[in-house]
Write a structure and sequence with these properties.
Helices cover 37% and strands 15% of the residues. The chain is built from 14 helices and 16 strands. Helix 3 packs antiparallel against helix 11 and helix 12 packs parallel to helix 14. The chain binds pyridoxal-5'-phosphate. The site of pyridoxal-5'-phosphate (PLP) has 14 residues, from helix 5.
């Protein structure tokens, strides 16, 4: 052994307790109060993934009903994606992307601009800038928008508009334009302050108000803000159709059409964060399609590589690109990440797009989404479910104490969420409720046996949530 680098030997197959002891002694897991792992929250070591199933070190199978944080599209360890990764890694694993180029990055960019949402009234997205994760994509879009305005001499545009209950990531810029108090509040003194406007969330509809009317009411509030502040705004950033981290809250596409129109009227960029909803989750390849709009910036990640490797991309227009075109180096976009455009990740993304090209995934998902709706319907009858909502392959149950008033349980909210999570896990499915919202966002390969497991686990989770003392 050189330099005292230990071997850290793997454990005997199935020795879960020893694994947990070692893991909890050294690893700090994401988005976790680590102390919960000593009690209510089990840490689940996984040794392998196949299709929609994960296999634990304990030998049990778990249905990945949340696509491993919304990343997985076609199942775990997909042979075609794995092969593409292996082939690319053996050929060129990485190269600096400033001053250098490679085929996987070029091909992916060409394909992304070809499939990006388009509209008859707006120029197409024609330029691709790579990042390493979703938060990085948001940072890139925010900086690019601001800088494009600066380069055009529009120095006043230093602020952003974001939606209430929105989520765009955890790095300081992305967190600043997010409105989830659990994640944002403690860091507030460090964050730039966007203008938050009301969410078009149809859950907020008044009695008798349609989702569309609710969306247009939120758009009217956006119009008021833009009339007052429009000249100082660089961009509006939003999650089209579904505010995912905000509790899978859904809105009518009329909001997006209005937001697009208002941004144009005020010279404001529209940043569409399709990091979670892109690649077919809402029933179209991109959510923006349902409103017939093209944004000025499209941020994609998560499903981009089919859930296999970290990668993100920001697509923008020729107009934005041209604002940086200059003899002056400092007018260029001097932003980079070490692994920008990583060729292995780009190859995984190309393999994922090949899977979309091979069959009509969007059409097949329509049938699958209908099967999921039918499977979910009996659960929606539960007295503690106030609403079952769906956008394509995303279904969400709003859990409440009282269905008639739609009042959430006030006592032990965290304990209820944990109880629901544990009960689902016991029943063989990974469901990770967002507070009082239980949701399904399965991989597109989910089969009938898995849907049965999903229903059984969801019922167990519901009962545990409502019955928790
Ligand atoms: C997950 C997510 C992000 C952040 O992506 P990371 O890869 O986790 O940094 C941004 N926006 C939305 C809508 C997301 O769901």
């Amino acid at each position: 052994m050189t330099q005292n680098i230990p071997i850290a030997p793997m454990l005997a197959e199935g020795d879960v307790d020893a694994f947990l002891a070692r893991d909890l002694a050294v690893v700090w897991h994401p988005c976790t109060q680590m102390r919960e792992h000593r009690g209510e929250l089990p840490l689940v070591p996984i040794r392998r993934g196949r299709g929609e199933w994960l296999e634990g070190l304990d030998g049990r199978r778990y249905l990945d009903a949340i696509s491993s944080w919304w990343t997985n599209l076609f199942g775990h360890a997909h042979p075609a994606i794995a092969a593409a990764i292996g082939t690319q890694a053996a050929e060129l694993e990485h190269v600096i992307y400033a001053g250098f180029a490679h085929e996987p990055g070029l091909r992916l960019a060409e394909r992304l601009v070809a499939i990006a949402p388009r509209s008859t009234t707006h120029p197409p997205l024609s330029r691709v800038f790579y990042g390493e994760n979703g938060s990085a994509a948001i940072e890139i879009a925010l900086k690019m928008s601001f800088h494009a305005h600066q380069n055009r001499g529009d120095a006043q545009r230093t602020r952003f508009i974001a939606l209430q209950n929105g989520y765009h990531g955890e790095t300081l810029g992305a967190l600043a334009v997010s409105d989830i108090p659990l994640f944002r509040r403690i860091y507030a003194p460090l964050l730039m302050e966007p203008l938050f406007v009301p969410s078009p969330d149809a859950w907020n509809a008044g009695p008798g108000e349609t989702a569309e009317a609710c969306a247009l009411r939120a758009a009217a509030a956006l119009a008021t803000t833009l009339e007052r502040e429009g000249g100082r705004i660089a961009a509006l950033v939003l999650e089209p159709l579904v505010q995912c981290a905000g509790g899978m809250r859904m809105h009518h596409p009329a909001y997006l059409a209005e937001a697009r129109r208002l941004c144009d009227a005020h010279g404001v960029h529209l940043i569409a964060d399709e990091i979670a909803v892109g690649f077919g989750r809402t029933g179209t390849l991109f959510a923006c399609e349902q409103a017939g709009i093209a944004p000025d910036f499209l941020c994609v990640s998560k499903g981009l590589t089919g859930g296999s490797l970290p990668l993100s991309a920001v697509l923008t227009t020729e107009a934005v690109f041209e604002a940086f075109w200059s003899e002056d180096r400092t007018r260029g976009f001097l932003h980079s990440h070490s692994y920008t455009g990583n060729p292995v990740a780009c190859a995984a993304a190309n393999a994922t797009l090949d899977l979309f090209a091979r069959r009509d995934v969007i059409a097949d998902n329509r049938a699958l989404a209908a099967r999921l709706a039918a499977a979910a319907a009996p659960l929606a009858e539960h007295p503690n479910v106030a609403e079952l909502r769906q956008a394509g392959m995303i279904l969400a149950f709003e859990l409440v104490e009282d269905r008639s008033t739609r009042r959430a349980f006030a006592d032990h909210p965290r304990r209820r969420t944990l109880a629901a999570y544990r009960a689902a896990l016991e029943a063989g499915a990974v469901l990770r409720p967002l507070g009082n919202v239980l949701y399904w966002m399965p991989p597109y390969c989910i089969g009938d046996e898995a849907i049965d497991t999903l229903v059984r686990a969801s019922r167990a989770a519901l009962e545990a949530y409502a019955g928790c003392e």
